[in-house]
Amino acid sequence: MRLKIITFVLILVYVLVSCGKSRDIHKDTPSEYRAKCFVVKIPYKNSSMEENMYLLYDENSKYAVIIDPGAVSMPMEDFILAKSLKVRAILNTHGHYDHIGANGYYKEKYSCQVYGNRGDMDFYEDDEPYNMPTKFISGDSKLEFGNIKIRVICTPGHSMGGTCFLAGDFLFSGDTLFKKSIGRTWEYDGKTAEEMKDMLVTNITDKILRLPETTVVFPGHGDATSIDEEKYHNPFL
Ligand SMILES: [Zn+2]
Predict the structure, then answer these.
(1) Residues 6+ apart with CB under 8 A from 198
(2) Alpha carbon of 220 to ligand 1 centroid (Å)
(3) How many C-beta neighbours within 10 Å does residue 197 have?
(4) 226 confidence band (pLDDT: 50, 70, 90)
(5) How far apart (Å, rounded) are the C-alpha atoms in residues 168 and 216?
(6) Distance 219 CA to ligand 1 centre (A)
(7) Distance 5 CA to ligand 1 centre (A)
């Protein structure tokens, strides 16, 4: 019994520590915006997966957007409160469960719209209805939330709705591009996993690697990187 209690306490401490991890990523970056990464543990399917949820904000207007809320993060909520930020939108880089799990929770909490790509409707329909986007992206476009201007770059391959968001010198790449890696691909709608990978690599090469080399890349999992770094050192490209 005592062992069970100790094990439970240890697991609880681990979960709290994992969910509390955050990385401040505005220092020494040339962007006009600021961003903070909150690493969340995905409480689903007994997974021990971690995902990077981002808060992109403008220090002057206090406007903010949440990118890929995979799970609820108390440290992020505390930060929003402490900074008096006004959350204007939630953006999804794609519709996989580990990137959308707290869409509904934050949509209610901050009374804002959720933007997702129509290409991932299958995944959204498989998830809880309250995580469904309220606005749909269906091609390269622009979004504006007060002073925050975002270029929407569609990069299907990891999923058909794969999308990157560019704000100033920050690129939020979801599971399209990682540090020294790219997103996994699967067979989809008559296309083989290899064909989906070719599509992903073409999109990264044509649309992402052409961005300025100083662009900082914030992926959905793992460490941040840069266009410069990935252009010359990513073995998949
Ligand atoms: Zn994914």
Answers:
(1) none
(2) 8
(3) 19
(4) very high
(5) 10
(6) 11
(7) 35
CA 82 / ligand 1 centre spacing (Å): 31
* Per-residue pLDDT reduced to its tens digit, 51-88: 999 999 998 899 999 999 999 999 999 999 999 999 99
Distance 183 CA to ligand 1 centre (A): 7
CA 96 / ligand 1 centre spacing (Å): 5
Q: Report the separation in Å between the CA atom of 45 and the middle of ligand 1, taken as the mean of its atom positions.
A: 15
Separation between Cα atoms, residue 208 and residue 151, nearest integer Å: 12
**Residue spans of beta strands (DSSP E) within 77-235:** 86-91, 113-117, 135-137, 141-145, 148-154, 163-167, 170-174, 177-178, 181-182, 216-219, 225-226
Ligand 1 centroid vs 126 CA: distance in angstroms?
14
- Distance (angstroms) between ligand 1 centre and the Cα of 158 equals 7
Average confidence (pLDDT) over 180-187: 96
Spell out the alpha helix ranges (H) of the chain. Answer: 2-20, 74-83, 97-100, 103-110, 121-126, 193-203, 227-233
Q: Which residues contact 67 (CB under 8 A, 6 or more apart)?
A: 53, 54, 55, 56, 90, 91, 92, 93, 165, 172
